[in-house]
């Protein structure tokens, strides 16, 4: 597996004197024609970008763009297919793998967790941490909470609207939000609450697309997140890939075919291609420090400033249109993970 720099074409032709909103694809970093970038996490303390792929993990120097390290099973990673990367407050890197459990890394030392250690499942898709240090892990068989004081694992399944957990977020009130294959759940420390399409999550099926029957429940096949050839467009607004807590207290959820949904505490508002979103399948979400939202979709990246959308696709320099991961570096640049590699958007 390689990690190589290639200047983006758009970076060569656009003028340098750009207004603040006129971000462009500055450059791209290739990981291989058949390799998928599924996770991106920035570690500001070490000026590092962590890149989780279907063939291992890269540690990249943000200042130079040069590769520092590559991790595979030879170096201690439980499985090369990495779907999630988390950082905790102790500086540990957590790698969630496809069928390999969780690997934790710090200063050259590795520890891997399996169900025998308390992990809910071998398939891991998200991480988040609460104010008290409790660490949450989203899996295909519910969600784990690792208690900060004891290090013990606790598993929640029946409390969730659906056991397949893809997205995790903690809001300003320290509530934990869960994006699942069957809707959105929330835990405030005492009670659980859930929302589905019946409550307004995900836009209506205006294009009359066939409903996605690939729920995957009771199986171990990777259905709609397959790395195989793209199939026909389908629709399942409950299927929530990603979730974030915005600075204004709202919750944003990316759905399969239902676009991106915003929850203000009472009502869900949905944004789709009708409003200017690049694609209605939303894999990844990010809010930058200016408050601007970035949506990784099946047809490129969308930037939304609260008034209008700006989209980035192949013509703008992306390596692929399916955008599975987004991250922001300390300088404000947006990193975009797709098949074939990573692109950097900035001014």
Largest sheet: 5 strands, antiparallel
Coarse structural class: mainly beta
Q: What name does the CATH topology of the domain at 114-210 and 233-312 carry? A: Methylamine Dehydrogenase, Chain H
Gyration radius over CA: 19 Å
Shape: globular
Quaternary organisation: single chain
Helix tally equals 1
CATH architecture of the domain at 114-210 and 233-312: 7 Propeller
Counted beta strands: 29
Mean pLDDT: 91
CATH level 1 class label of the domain at 114-210 and 233-312: Mainly Beta
> Uncertain spans, ≥5 residues at pLDDT below 50?
9-18, 216-220, 222-229
Distance between the termini: 29 Å
Share of residues in helices: under 10%
In what order do the strands lie side by side in the largest sheet?
A: 1-2-29-28-27
* SSE pattern, N- to C-terminal: EHEEEEEEEEEEEEEEEEEEEEEEEEEEEE
Name the CATH superfamily classification of the domain at 114-210 and 233-312.
Answer: YVTN repeat-like/Quinoprotein amine dehydrogenase
Q: Beta fraction of the residues?
A: 35-45%
């Amino acid at each position: 597996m390689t990690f190589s720099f290639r200047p983006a074409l758009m970076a060569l032709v656009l003028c340098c004197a750009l207004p603040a909103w006129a971000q462009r694809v500055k450059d791209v970093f290739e990981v291989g024609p058949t390799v998928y970038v599924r996770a991106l996490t920035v570690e500001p303390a070490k000026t590092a970008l962590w890149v989780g792929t279907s063939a291992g993990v890269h540690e990249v120097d943000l200042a130079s763009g040069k590769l520092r390290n590559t991790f595979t099973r030879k170096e201690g990673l439980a499985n090369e297919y990495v779907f999630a990367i988390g950082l905790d407050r102790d500086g540990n890197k957590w790698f969630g793998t496809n069928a390999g459990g969780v690997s934790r890394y710090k200063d050259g030392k590795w520890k891997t967790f399996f169900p025998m250690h308390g992990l809910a499942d071998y398939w891991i898709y998200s991480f988040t941490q609460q104010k008290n240090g409790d660490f949450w892990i989203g899996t295909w068989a519910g969600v784990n909470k690792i208690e900060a004081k004891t290090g013990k694992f606790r598993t929640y399944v029946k409390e969730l609207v659906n056991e397949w957990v893809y997205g995790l977020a903690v809001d300003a009130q320290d509530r934990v939000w869960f994006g699942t294959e069957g809707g959105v759940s929330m835990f405030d420390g005492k009670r659980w609450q859930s929302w589905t399409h019946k409550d307004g999550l995900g836009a209506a099926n205006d294009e009359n697309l066939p409903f996605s029957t690939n729920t995957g429940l009771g199986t171990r096949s990777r259905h709609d997140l397959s790395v195989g050839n793209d199939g026909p467009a389908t629709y399942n607004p409950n299927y929530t890939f990603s979730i974030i807590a915005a600075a204004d207290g709202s919750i944003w959820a990316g759905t399969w075919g239902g676009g991106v949904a915003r929850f203000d505490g009472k009502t869900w508002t949905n944004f789709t291609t009708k409003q200017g979103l690049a694609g209605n399948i939303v894999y990844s979400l990010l809010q930058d420090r200016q408050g601007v939202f970035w949506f990784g979709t099946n047809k490129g990246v969308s930037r939304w400033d609260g008034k209008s959308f700006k989209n980035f696709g192949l013509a703008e320099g992306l390596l692929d249109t399916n955008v599975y991961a987004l991250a922001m570096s300390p300088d404000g640049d947006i990193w975009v993970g797709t098949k074939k590699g990573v692109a950097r958007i900035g001014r």
